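If you are new to this repository, start here. Below is one unmodified record pulled from the training split, so you can see the exact layout before writing a loader.
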Amino acid sequence: MLDLVILTYNEEHRLPSALEVAKKWANDIFIVDKGSTDATLEIAKSYGCKVISIPFSKQGHENTAEINLEIKKLKNTDNPWFLGLTPGEVPTKGFIDIAKSLATPESTHDVILVPVRIHSFGRFMPGGPWSFSSQPRLINLNTAMVKNLCHDSYCITERSIQITDSEDSHIFHPTHVNFDSFIRSHVDYALAETNNQTLDMVGSFVQQAEQYNFGFVMHSGADMRQFLAWKVYNYMVALKRLDDLQLPETEKYYLDMRNKYKKSEWQI
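And here is the target side for that same chain:
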């Protein structure tokens, strides 16, 4: 038996499809909702989901530790595991079978990393930007250690294992439908990504931005939108962190210059 957790905010259009699939394999379905104002909660209740309401936060800013505590309170089995999905994701049957065989009450693992195939701007391109990732999505509520960082919520330890990606075992993850959806979500993620980070991370994000070049796109058939979005996001995170570090100095500069102009030009 395996429980499912889906985080929602105004997901009335995607949630029914996700729940139709989930009802085929999930024991309990937990909807963790951030204050939806559409029909999300009504849809969740109509499918018999358990709803946990949390304060609104931007994407990537959720308090994972508090969410886990609420899930643990409502669980009705002795199996401490759950699988976390977004409303747009669909797991393969093979993946669910493997997940159920590994995420059992007897398991000594803390988290299990699962294969996620990311379809960005309408394309899945192995080896390219936003194409594949191995993410800790199977969570043991009793043993998982939470870091509460954007894109890095859980600690990976010697007790963690990984499910191998294959055509029969992975999660389909759609993202970046168009420019608007990319900008809306990734401004939020860039803000969250820079929390609790140091100056050192600026270089790593610049390095990631430059990981792919124009020649890669021309020879791989990659969607140019993926190529540009990858660079924009990583440069955006680096820029935000540098801005945080230098903001007091910049603000002082403008204040001093304003006073200088007022004094020299207008004798104020």
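Two things worth knowing about this chain: The first strand starts at residue 3 and ends at 8. Residues 172 and 244 are 35 Å apart (CA to CA).
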